[in-house]
Specification:
This protein is of the alpha/beta class and 203 residues long. Helix content is 22%, strand content 33%. Strands 1, 3, 4, 5, 6, 8, 9, 10 and 11 form a nine-stranded mixed sheet that branches. The model is unreliable at 5-27 (pLDDT under 50).
């Protein structure tokens, strides 16, 4: 594993199921960076007539500064570093928001799903807080660790109708960038499915 503490810049990628396409070196001559996307598992649940009338809005997740960027975070002995020559395809909160919208929409459960500005007549807001989204290194073992808090807010009165903290882990199968990103992607796919199923059963 190679890590760096400085901020990662522009994107490039490597061919894999959840990766984007490869590109050139940056103008300053730095090595190309692998750029990784997040993927989802579809939750194919037919909506009831009641739910087909419901429209939900997925807000952009909150996140601390270390997670509010494109860097892939590595935690070890209480310190934070970044995976060298690797980054997400977008700022992590924007990427998580986009994939949650996609997952909710693909569930075919609600009458409408979108983000702020999409012009929905919303009934509920999905509020999230990314608390952990990193590879945790403990005693030589590398584990993708995700923790996201989710709240459902009734848009009519602003009340929080339900909340839950989701935690998921996935082992890292090796020491290269692809394997680190794959573990995070696997953990995210499982968590996304859990979030969608919980929301469907709650609203």
């Amino acid at each position: 594993m190679i890590i760096e503490t400085k901020h990662v810049k522009r994107i490039l990628s490597y061919p894999l199921g959840f990766l984007l396409t490869a590109s050139l070196l940056s103008a300053c001559g730095a090595p190309a960076r692998d750029t990784y996307d997040l993927s989802i598992n579809d939750v194919a649940v037919a909506g009831t007539p009641k739910h087909q009338k419901i429209q939900i809005l997925v807000e952009k997740p909150d996140a601390v500064k270390a997670l509010d960027g494109q860097d892939i975070v590595i935690k070890q002995n209480g310190s934070i570093a970044y995976l060298k020559r690797a980054q997400w395809s977008d700022r992590l909160p924007d990427l998580v928001q986009a994939r949650l919208v996609q997952a909710f929409d693909n569930s075919n459960h609600f009458g409408g799903v979108g983000r702020p500005g999409d012009g929905l007549a919303i009934n509920y807001r999905i509020l999230t807080d990314i608390r952990s989204f990193d590879v945790n290194v403990v005693n030589g073992h590398n584990t993708a660790t995700l923790e996201i808090s989710v709240k459902i807010m009734d848009d009519r009165n602003g009340n929080i109708t339900a909340s839950r903290v989701f935690k998921t882990e996935a082992p890292v199968s090796g020491t290269n960038n692809n394997q680190y990103a794959a573990a995070l992607d696997n953990a995210f796919k499982k968590m996304t499915k859990d979030i969608i199923n919980w929301t469907i059963s709650t609203i």
